[in-house]
Amino acid sequence: MLVLWLTLAGCAMAGATRTWTDRGGKSFEAELLAADSVRATLQVKGGAKTIVPLANLSSADLDYLRQSRRDNPDAPIVDPTFLPPWPKEAVAESFDVKITGEDRASGSTEYSSPHFTIAADLRLPVGVVRDLAAVLEATRAAVCAVPLGIMSGLEPEKYQVRLFSKTEEYGAAGGNVGTGGTFTHREMLILLPNLGIQATTNGLSAEHQKNLFVIKHEVTHQLLDR
């Protein structure tokens, strides 16, 4: 059943042949078969199927692909009869983390990266939040790069992440007992002390680098849930 669905899906995006242009200015005629956030699968006019990295296409082609995905959200991400090679690496684009909200009375602060909204129940140094966001964004980039048609890369909204400094509040929000991270099918919950981030008499202790695997695990649940 799965094989049949994939085969039918691979044909669902077929459309008219159009002119494509690579970054070097060379144009060619091809039909769009599938596309994700990393590459497009094209049927070259009078030739064979080919997989083209989006980085090799013109800005006009990228605009066309984005609009095509918005107009056809269920269109195939890959062609199952012509799968891309497995990538050697996946890297998130450089980004900034910004503070987008703050309650000075409680200290709770909201931060934003390109694809995640991160709310903490205390104010954290932006550098620490950026370390966490780097794992979130890089894991997303890796899932997008996997050539199995998992993610289109055009999510309708940002993923929600909540960081807790107290076990009681983590549990009350839905965090599973005895865990450092939980995905509730709505948001990702992370217990900061489990990452080595906690308030001490000498200030904030941030020894999180060795425990970032917790975030990788939970965000993968979050990314694949949709």
CATH class of the largest domain: Alpha Beta
| Biggest β-sheet strands, sense, barrel | 6 strands, mixed
User: How many structurally independent domains?
Assistant: 2
Q: What structural class do you assign from the helix and strand content?
A: alpha+beta
Strand count: 12
Mean pLDDT score = 87
- The CATH homologous superfamily of the largest domain is termed Collagenase ColT, N-terminal domain
* Terminus-to-terminus distance: 21 Å
Strand content: 25-35%
Whole-angstrom Rg: 21 Å
Structure description:
- This protein has helices spanning 2-11, 59-71, 126-145, 167-172, 192-195, 213-225, and strands at residues 17-21, 27-35, 39-44, 49-53, 98-102, 109-112, 116-120, 159-164, 181-183, 188-191, 197-200, 203-206.
- It has 226 residues and is of the alpha+beta class.
- Mean pLDDT is 87; it is low at 1-13.
- It folds into 2 domains: 2-71, Roll (SH3 type barrels), CATH 2.30.30.700; 98-225, 3-Layer(aba) Sandwich (Glutaredoxin).
- The longest helix has 20 residues, at 126-145.
